[in-house]
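Q: I have 254 residues here and want to know how they pack in 3D. Can you give me a structure?
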Amino acid sequence: MSDTEEDSKPSRRAELKKLQFQKSQELKKAKNKNEKIFIEDKFSKFETDLLGVSNYACDKIDEQASAPQDLYSSSPRETSRSQKKKEEKALRESEKKREILAQVGDGSFETKVRDSEIIAIQSRIPNGFVIHDIPADGDCMFSSICMYLTNLTHQELRNEIANYLEQHEDELSPFLDDEDVSSFGEYVESVRSNRWGGQMELEAVSRISNKKILVYTSSNILEFGEADGEPIRLSFHEHQMTSNHYNAVVIRFE
């Protein structure tokens, strides 16, 4: 390649600035927290690819973690609190990727991370149970639970949970931590329509169904409810899809 051709290529810094601008524009148009999470995940992958992490070399990972901050802010000397949190999160993710690199060796980074996570989750699941894939359509947690509560559709389950939250607002509203909703009532309506499921919804399901819920993650097992008997079992994946995802954990049928 000639010097002229090399000079005509956009610099990595310019490409990163362009990505950051595109991300900021999409975030402004996002209607809710879930859309913001999706956008953040999407552009995080773009930035990772641009920085060369997919080459699976530790020095590239270090480069991502220490990328100049002026690429991400028009005023680098005035770092906001949210920006600091993002930087700390990026550093933690970089360290996590480094640990995974040491375990899984060469190959596609995304594939190795996903496979490593699945192996860790499966190690916590009892013998005789398997992970049953659920579509990533925004209803994955509710659909996973409906593998156990077969008398309900995922929309009917959403309605049951929303009704429960409405009836127990005084008890549960102090636990609401979502800057994208202005009231507990707005939160409840988002659960009824299209909100992704989380811990408050899992706690509500355990009370509605009188069943304990076990959620298997790569690092531990989360428990919701105190009921005896066979629990509802789910798996939680951070890397299977472009955003957090739930699957059902069911009895293996030969």
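Q: Anything worth noting?
A: The domain at 118-251 is CATH 3.90.70.80 (Cathepsin B; Chain A). Confidence is low (pLDDT under 50) at residues 1-9, 53-78.
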